[in-house]
Amino acid sequence: MVAANNFTCVRPAHRGTVSRVTDDYLALNRANWDERAPLHAASADYDLANFLADPNFIGSDLRFDLPLLGDVRGLRGVHLQCHIGTDTLGLARLGATMTGLDLSPGSLAQARALAEKTGAAIEFVESDVYAAETALGAARFDLVYSSVGTLCWLPDVARWARTVAALLRPGGRLFLRDGHPVLQSVDETHTDRLVIGYPYFETAEPVVFSDDTTYVATDTRLTATTTHEWNHGLGEIVQAVLDAGLTLTGLTEHRSVPWEALPGRMTYDASGEYRLTDQPERLPLSFTLQARKP
């Protein structure tokens, strides 16, 4: 099972290449996610049947977040890069008034359909993250939520942090959980050892992947196969948040991640997460960062 409710950076079986390709990364990535969206909505991995059957159901990613996320009742929240809206719906079920934002109209069509079928009053807005302030308005939100597999689609983490700060009201908070940048730098094609094969630090050039599959079980092959991705070091992420004027309130590194990032070397546990089977203390797999706007 792959517990992947958002823009999860699940890499193809072959390595990507650092490239100076000048194609529009937004158009390439949008086309890829437009094709993935209906496949994900139809997959059991996204648990849409449980969302429809049980009005209290929330996905495993969000359940993992709850001990650190805490009570969101009464908060006005925005879920950035919400994909097909399962965690957006989960946050609404926990009592927040939610807006979801995503660049993919195909993903938003699935998110709106899910909200309509479940009777959830959620606004979904089409926009890339960097245009979120224009699309949504400044200083409107008590909570900005972003979950696993999001930062890798953005070329400039400092610009992302400034956008988050612009969206938050004074006293509002950021909750980010994502794949750890050390994990994102590991070349998963080496199955006998951990090898750093991708950039750890942010680069101007993207890592370009070409793959016709997605991370759920399906016989359908994608035609929009090219994606552009970037890594961002943990220090770069923290500094970007601080430079944007936010106050860091928490930083936790986790030994688990919601997808099988290193195939054949991970064990799926009862919490819906994957861990290194052998010596899990060797590698941080994900992290949670929290911050507040003064």
UniProtKB/TrEMBL annotation:
Pfam family membership, one: Methyltransf_25
InterPro entries: Methyltransf_25 (IPR041698), SAM-dependent_MTases_sf (IPR029063)
Any one Gene Ontology BP term: methylation
CDD domains: AdoMet_MTases
Positions of the Methyltransferase domain: 81-172
Record keywords: Methyltransferase, Transferase
Classification via SUPFAM superfamilies: S-adenosyl-L-methionine-dependent methyltransferases (SSF53335)
Top-level taxon of origin: Bacteria
Keyword DNA-binding: no
Name of the protein in its database record: Class I SAM-dependent methyltransferase
GO MF annotation: an example: methyltransferase activity
The UniProt record lists the keyword Transferase: yes
